């Protein structure tokens, strides 16, 4: 299995604050990697860096090609798709159109072609993505007619639709209840089986530990652990980061 | 040198006027979150109130200065309260752009009602301030210049102190920072906004009354003083009263110096007269400078806002209505009497103009006041290519459209940095500058007389309004030209409807909704905006070319800033996201079918339409943000549209989706 994503020494500064320092992270073909960490650990900042929304130091390569200097939309076209913690759907477009935005290209030439022959660009992919999150029935609805959980799933479907090389999921399960979250986990697993590669950020430990092949743990912008779910679960520093040292001792006693 | 000093001091007068309007702009923004385009109009209203009181307009009673001042004070107060209650209060949770458009509605209402009440001739305002002169550094200067400047400086200082140290100022600043928290702290955002709106009206009104010696009282110049005032307010970041005051005075002084320098032999001339529009150009450049110096974004306000623009439904069937409309119009262009034929042609061209706004405002969510100027550029290009270079149809129109697109792209480049409300302000400055500096100029514009346009001929066929084939009454304009305009209008309608269905149309709406998410979905936000502005400019260019052929000459009056603003008002009232809204806008635009019919049959002049336009604009903003056409659409579609859908598994736990689209 080859690396799809290679992040080496990724650092981000916000003014004097070091939000990320020297983060290394790889995602291989068909792999589902989890990225966890307490609030403020820099998880979303990492996704923002990968997708070109913040300036970063270090290198990020996708399929071996350096992404340095590329704006967000070009990274997206090269196959980096993301979802948003705060959903960020296009409220003025139907669910179907939300997914179709990613498959269109903005040039006068394509407009001219479409004026002559309206093309349903990527209709199959859109249908497939909607079916995957079981929202095919909602295709013609507007986002604000859906529940929070459904909107979240539309966001996931929008990222899946163009068939990205790597899917970056920023807290897709936040706002979902336990059963929905488990259902989402099964679908992500199924996607990974089909060969999709994913980086999953979430606070739902059950979800992340349950579905990921490998997990990377961030704290204060640094990688403090990485490995299989079992290794990470047993890592003392990880438990400390989440529960504080007192809690960690108690967990250690139970183990 | 002494002369320079004299003009610097004289400039304090108009500077004071600009400064106080700038103070009003800052107040309205800090206190109510509105970029108030009607700030200058408020000064005008107070001026007219005082003038009509002292000149015996009301029941023949000529009030003395003192009582008239007191009455004017109360009238201005009431105007401020009314404007707040009717226009701004209902919209305080609307998108910033909607508020800006509402202030535009107020501006149009104020202006049109003053024109209706007192005509367009300038009124001699009675001077309240002493008309003595003083000797300063060897020159003689009227003392009122110093008094005016002094008043403004005192007002600015008082406002700055009040905002800093009083509970009212603290409350206002708190509400501007975070409206929700202010509410929770027991402050009424609505009352704060009322107080500030009234205060802003009073500040602008004061100088509207007192500045009689430096400005003429009329319904055009005072409202448009808001443009240099906006430049001053933007330099102050819409925050600092002191900077706004200083910048306003500074702009007044610069304008005065321009007056002085234009008497010099080295000042560039145009056919013997000093180059026109230099002041407007300076105001525009200052706005641009302010945007770049201070950062493109206006200071944000923490409001409880639903920042949505009206929805943009996918157009339904377009072929049938397009054919029906074409047939009816084509027949009407033969049957109708000449004046109604002309009005119908004007309506069609107005529709194309509004379509240009549908693309740029409706689809991409950017308000560009400059679109009508782009049409003007196309029109003047057509005229000058024929007159100066002997190039006619069809090359000249193509060149005209190309010129419009080039200028439109320049606007778009600024739209990449500046967006939303800021863009509206920049393009308003640009529209005034292009009109006064470009179109009034007799070399590259139309001068006093307008620039002639020859009939379009294609393969020996006359396609213009003077074509030999005449309507039933045998008069001009020829139906042939009407048909050409009709065909172009239908084509443009179909184009704009098709854009909404196309991939790039979806991307435009994606950009309008959420630029970050659009970029993450692979949309090149810059390219989409540039494309939208190019298409919009092209459509405006088409309209401008037709305008030129329609009237046989191009003049600046047709493309001035106030006309541009009323066009936006009509387009917004009709439904700025819809092709049908553009059709509505065309029907009510200047010299179009409805105004003409009302004028002819009921004797209701076009100014009444501007007044109604302003009122309807405010009403639709509050009641039907999607415009009149949108509201009709909704009513027609209500009911049978959607079969009931059931939400399986995932949805059910969150409650079923809302029942019908029509009820949204």
Largest sheet of chain B: 2 strands, antiparallel
Tell how many strands the DSSP assignment of chain A holds: 10
Overall body shape of chain A = globular
Order of helices and strands of chain A: EEEHEEHEHHHHEHEHEEHH
Using the CA coordinates, give the radius of gyration of chain B. 26 Å
Give the name of the CATH superfamily of the largest domain in chain A: P-loop containing nucleotide triphosphate hydrolases
Segments of chain A where pLDDT lies below 50 for 5+ residues?
none
**Portion in beta strands of chain A:** 15-25%
What is the CATH C-level name of the largest domain in chain B?
Mainly Alpha
Largest interface, with counts of residues having CB < 8 Å to the other chain, equals:
A-B, 58 and 48 residues
Report the C-alpha radius of gyration of chain A, rounded: 19 Å
The CATH architecture of the largest domain in chain B comes to: Orthogonal Bundle
N→C terminal distance of chain B: 68 Å
- Number of discrete helical segments of chain A: 10
Care to describe what's here?
The complex is a heterodimer of chains A (255) and B (664). By secondary structure, chain A is α/β, with parallel strands linked by helices. Chain A folds into 2 domains: 3-79 and 164-254, P-loop containing nucleotide triphosphate hydrolases (Rossmann fold, 3-Layer(aba) Sandwich); 93-153, no CATH class. In chain A, 39% of the residues lie in helices and 24% in strands. In chain A, strand 4 and strand 5 form a beta hairpin. In chain A, helix 5 crosses helix 6 (148-160) and helix 7 packs parallel to helix 8. Chain A is globular, with a radius of gyration of 19 Å. The two termini of chain A are 34 Å apart. The mean pLDDT of chain A is 85. Chain B is built from 27 helices and 8 strands. By secondary structure, chain B is mostly helical. In chain B, a hairpin with a 2-residue loop joins strand 1 (133-136) and strand 2. Chain B has a two-stranded antiparallel sheet with strand order 1-2. Chain B folds into 2 domains: 2-267, ABC transporter involved in vitamin B12 uptake, BtuC; 319-558, no CATH class. In chain B, helix 2 runs parallel beside helix 4, helix 4 crosses helix 22 (561-575) and helix 10 packs parallel to helix 12. Helix content of chain B is 67%, strand content 3%. The longest helix of chain B is centred in the first third of the chain and has 31 residues, at 2-32. Classes of the chains: A alpha/beta (255), B mainly alpha (664). At the A-B interface, helix 2, helix 3, helix 4, helix 6 and helix 7 of A face helix 18, helix 19, helix 20, helix 21 and helix 27 of B.
